[in-house]
Design a protein that fits this description.
Layout lengths: L4 H12 L11 H12 L6 H7 L5 E5 L3 E5 L3 E10 L5 E9 L4 E2 L8 E2 L2 E6 L7 E6 L10 E11 L3 E2 L4 E7 L3 E5 L3 E5 L4 E10 L6 E8 L6 E2 L8 E2 L2 E6 L8 E7 L10 E11 L4 E3 L4 E7 L9 E3 L11 E7 L4 E10 L5 E4 L1 E5 L3 E7 L7 E11 L4 E4 L8 E5 L3 E2 L2 E3 L2 E4 L3 E2 L3 E3 L2 E5 L2 E10 L4 E3 L7 E9 L3 E5 L1 E2 L26 E8 L3 E9 L5 E7 L1 E8 L2 E8 L5 E2 L6 E6 L2 E4 L4 E3 L4 E7 L4 E7 L5 E9 L10 E5 L5 E6 L5 E8 L2 E8 L4 E2 L3 E6 L3 E9 L1
Parallel strand pairs: 1-10, 2-11, 5-6, 12-21, 13-22, 16-17, 31-34, 32-35, 33-36, 34-37, 36-38, 37-39, 38-40, 40-42, 54-61
Antiparallel strand pairs: 1-3, 3-8, 4-7, 4-9, 9-11, 12-14, 14-19, 15-18, 15-20, 20-22, 23-24, 24-28, 25-26, 25-29, 27-28, 29-30, 29-31, 40-44, 41-43, 43-47, 44-46, 45-48, 45-53, 46-53, 47-52, 49-50, 49-53, 51-52, 54-57, 55-56, 55-58, 58-60, 59-61
């Protein structure tokens, strides 16, 4: 069934006209049938459907999705009515804070005046209704702030449509004008210095002006022209910012600098901005005053002084902060770096604190990968065109730090920071400082430290596996932070072949105290995991140190071994030195089992060193000597005996008429106490301790007569 528009209008008239056909008198079944009839119609015109609405009602909603207006204006919020027009309807509205702050009046801190109320439509009124929101003006430069607008509580049978909640943005209309920097500098060479003034905030579409001037209070003297005693020409005037384009946010002015022949300190010129305009919405920023330093250019040959803390290992694309000082002022600094031996890249540094005479410059290294060995150095130039480099050698003597398991290129370096897993790609020479933060594999290469070089960070987990050389230019104490590869199998040198059970390699430092020698001599130290030749493998430490001298040095040595190195009876250890294929006990050496250290004083023949006992050179041996009086005359019938450490006598004899004795068939490879006794004579000392590895001769007992 199809229904014409006119027919539908007639039906609607009868339904909605209580005077003609009171609908409330119809039975419910009739009302339902009538509603079904109406909404089953297929060709209802769209205008008629809109008039009918949802079951014949009206809707109210905002006439926009979002809005905006500038500070100091009034925003008109439009609300529309749709659907049936036959009834009088109404709706409530209200504002609430988004990022903007509402209030009862435009006072400090208030962005808009809060409002609420009701909008009403008479029957048959299709017009838009509106309510106004007053936006408060201030002088703060700020981003846009938001207000929430909401509709609620429809009346007269109306319902809420979409949208019923919208956001209005208050756009800022303020801008600030200020100097681009609080400090400027310019060489006395001039001839002018340029100052930049910037504008921020709302700028597009708005012009602005400000006045600038040089003012009193600086150490420099201004004048109308350059002449005796005048350092700069006074300057003042307006700056005009355009509505759009390049001049909209930045303007400059210049000051003429007067060059003289005087050698003098740097001098300052005070600068001031004033009278921003037009209107109260254009104000001065915090940097409305600035100082410009005139840097003297007479006969200054002193280059800038660059100081900084070396970059630590495991830094990735780091920023290096350097302090650079200079009398006339630094005009620029540059960092240079090379990654894994490649070509040097460079980047300018920025002044991040202080001033041109004493400031902090931030320098950024980029382009790193993993692993990296990064060489770097800095340069700085002052207003008198003096240039300095740190380190002094620049590209030929750079600093270096590592990231990851990098390989360090061979060469000479100033400061070096090495992390875990780093390897030496050749011999490395260090002039300044070495910082260790991991195990460094020297391999067949040598790490050399010159006289002034220092080491930090050495210890468990931070040492060099390989050879470390140190030059000495006087009395000094130095610790060689060396060790063998952790977990490597022990090495048995020369004729020794046995290996101890469970040998573990690790940090094994050797401390050297230089007591004499030739200036510029060096000592190289390396440690080997294994028994030293000539040491008894059942009673020695499974580790030894090889010391190589270049020049002439005398030193006291202290080596540190590990608990896992100990084989046999540690309390019986002595200091062993191996030179020219022969291993001997070192006279005066001591072993401290409590601290796992051995000490050897007054060493001038360095060779190889360990702690333990000697390998016996014979199955049994003899001990011989003589007993004499204070005059040197031989004493007969003196009883001489040899006892083991348990106190058992293993051999004895009496001296002959000339005082000589020999003790036979004593087992080698142990310590014995050799004693002399006589009813007639008293000997001092009356006994000696002998470590018997082979025949011993020359034992002498002297009687107190």
């Amino acid at each position: 069934m199809k229904m014409s528009t006119s027919f539908l209008s007639v039906i609607l008239f009868f339904i909605t006209s209580a005077a003609a056909f009171p609908i409330y008198n119809l039975p419910p079944t009739a009302i339902g049938s009538l509603a079904g009839f109406l909404f089953a119609a297929e060709d209802v015109a769209s205008s008629d459907t809109a008039r009918m609405g949802a079951f014949g009602g009206a809707t109210v909603q905002f006439g926009f999705l979002s809005g905006s207006a500038g500070e100091g204006l009034t925003f008109s919020a439009q609300v529309s009515r749709a659907g049936v027009l036959t009834d009088a309807i109404g709706v409530s509205f209200a504002t609430s804070d988004g990022t903007a702050t509402g209030g009862a009046a435009c006072t400090a801190g208030v962005d808009y005046i809060t409002t609420s109320g009701t909008l009403s439509w008479a029957a048959g009124d299709p017009a838009f209704k509106a309510f106004n929101v007053v936006l408060c003006d201030d002088s703060a430069v700020e981003s846009g702030e938001t207000i929430n607008l909401t509709l609620s509580n429809p009346t007269g049978g109306a319902t809420l449509g979409t949208p019923t909640s919208v956001v209005v943005t208050i756009t800022d209309n303020d801008s600030q004008i200020q100097f681009s920097s609080a400090t400027y500098s310019q060489s006395e060479t001039g001839p002018t210095a340029t100052m930049t003034v910037v504008r921020t905030g709302t700028t597009v579409g708005f012009g602005a002006t400000v006045n600038y001037a040089t003012v009193a209070g600086g150490t420099a003297i201004g004048g109308a022209s350059c002449g005796a005693g005048v350092d700069y020409i006074n300057a003042s005037g307006p700056l005009t910012f355009t509505n759009t384009g390049p001049g909209n946010t930045s303007q400059t002015f210049t000051i003429s600098i007067c060059d003289d022949a005087l050698s003098e300190p740097s001098e300052t010129v005070n600068l001031q901005l004033s009278s921003p305009g037009p209107g109260a919405n254009i104000t001065l920023g915090s940097q409305s005053a600035a100082a410009m330093t005139i840097l003297d250019n007479e006969a200054d040959t002193t280059a800038p002084v660059i100081t900084y803390t070396p970059i630590p290992a495991n830094s990735f694309n780091p920023t290096l902060n350097a302090t650079i000082t200079d009398t006339v002022g630094v005009t620029g600094a540059t960092i240079f770096w090379s990654i894994n031996g490649g070509a040097f890249a460079s980047a300018g540094c920025s002044l991040s604190g202080g001033n041109a005479q004493s400031g902090t410059w931030s320098c950024q290294i980029t382009g790193m990968v993993n692993p990296n060995a990064v060489k770097y150095y800095l340069t700085a130039t002052d207003a008198a065109l003096n240039t300095s480099t740190n380190p002094t050698g620049g590209a030929t003597t750079p600093n270096l730090f590592t990231f990851g398991a990098a390989t360090v290129p061979a060469g000479t370096y100033n400061n070096m920071s090495l992390g875990n897993g780093v390897s030496l790609g050749g011999n490395v020479d260090i002039l300044g400082s070495l910082s260790l933060s991991g195990i460094v594999n020297g391999g067949a290469s040598k790490l050399t430290l010159e006289c002034a070089a220092t080491v930090s960070g050495g210890g468990e987990g931070s040492y060099v596996v390989g050879n470390m050389e140190k030059f000495f230019c006087g009395a000094a104490t130095f610790t060689y932070n060396v060790g063998a590869p952790f977990g490597a199998p022990p090495v048995a040198p020369e004729e020794t072949t046995a290996e101890p059970e469970g040998a573990v390699s690790n940090y094994s430092p050797l401390t050297v105290t230089i007591t004499g020698g030739t200036v510029g001599s060096s000592l190289t130290v390396g440690v080997t995991d294994g028994f030293m030749g000539g040491a008894m493998q059942t009673n020695a430490i499974s580790r030894f140190w090889t010391l190589t001298e270049n020049g002439d040095l005398t030193a006291n040595l202290t080596g540190t071994y590990r608990n896992e190195d100990v084989v046999g009876t540690e309390t019986s250890y002595k200091v062993l030195r191996r030179t020219g294929g022969t291993t001997l006990y070192y006279a005066g050496g001591t072993v401290n089992a409590a601290t796992n250290t051995f000490s050897a004083p007054g060493v001038s023949d360095f060779s190889q060193w360990t702690a333990g006992t000697l390998v016996p050179t014979a199955a049994s041996a003899t001990i011989s000597g003589r007993a004499v009086g204070s005059s040197g005359r031989g004493l007969a019938n003196v009883t001489v005996s040899a006892s083991n450490i348990q106190g058992n006598v293993v051999s004895f004899a009496r001296t002959n008429s000339f005082g000589y004795f020999t003790l036979y068939d004593i087992p080698a490879g142990a310590d014995y106490v050799v004693s002399a006794a006589s009813k007639r004579y008293r000997f001092d000392p009356s006994s000696f301790v002998v470590s018997l590895e082979d025949n011993v001769t020359g034992i002498s007992f002297v009687a107190k007569e």
